[in-house]
Every structure is written in C-alpha cells, then in structure tokens.
UniProtKB/TrEMBL annotation:
SUPFAM superfamilies: Winged helix' DNA-binding domain (SSF46785). Gene3D superfamilies: Winged helix-like DNA-binding domain superfamily/Winged helix DNA-binding domain (1.10.10.10). The keyword Cytoplasm does not apply. Transmembrane segments: none annotated. Pfam families: HxlR. Keywords: DNA-binding, Transcription, Transcription regulation. The keyword DNA-binding applies. Residues 23-121 form the HTH hxlR-type domain. This is DNA-binding transcriptional regulator, HxlR family. The lineage of its organism: Bacteria, Bacillati, Actinomycetota, Actinomycetes, Propionibacteriales. CDD domains: HTH_ARSR.
Amino acid sequence: MPSSQTRTDTAITHRGDVYSSSCPCRELLDVVAGKWSALAIGALADGPRRFGELERLLAGISPKVLTSTLRRLEDHGLVVRQVIPEVPLHVEYSLSDLGHSAVGPIAALRTWAEDHHAQAQAHLR
C-alpha cells in the first residue's frame, strides 16, 4: 500500500499533504489551528457546554465570534450542536469523535504556549 494511504476498518483513506496548495486538509488545519477554535475545542474536552458557559470560559471572545467559531467547527464535523427540549429550550455543544481526536494535539500546543510565552515575549520589539 502506498505511504500516502492508510487502511481503516471500513475503507482506505488518503492522507493529505498540507504543503500542497490544492489539498483540502489546509482548510481543516486552518479551522483547528485558529485561536478561538483551539480554545473552544479545549473547553469542550471535558464534556458538553452551553453557549454562555463557553463565552465565560473563553474570556475575551465576543458572542458573534463564538457563534461563528462554533458554526465553523460544526460545519467541519468537530462539534455537535444539540437542542435540549426543556423549558426553556437550550443548546449544548459537544465534541464529535473527530473533535475528540484533536484534543491531544491542541492540548500539547496550548501547554507549549503556556510554557514558552515569556521567551517569545522577550523577543518582541
């Protein structure tokens, strides 16, 4: 099997090449690597949250940007939006299996940023 392919239980999937200008994996990288997306994925790692909870947890995000971020994550299959039929109605957001698969790499990058921010700040002019 060529190295650009991997076998799964149900199908052969083709590995992307993020350095190729025509590869759609660039869009997914853009989605998960964005500041608010990465923070939203991290905030949802421990389970479902309501919009207001996410807004408070992601200090500094506007409601408009949070809405846009959650929609983009949902459009790419990383987040699941569920309307809870209670009175009053409310919506919960949670990670899909695909979203959960991004938690580890994003957590590692977040930890790296927390550990090295002072070094980077020292280089700013």
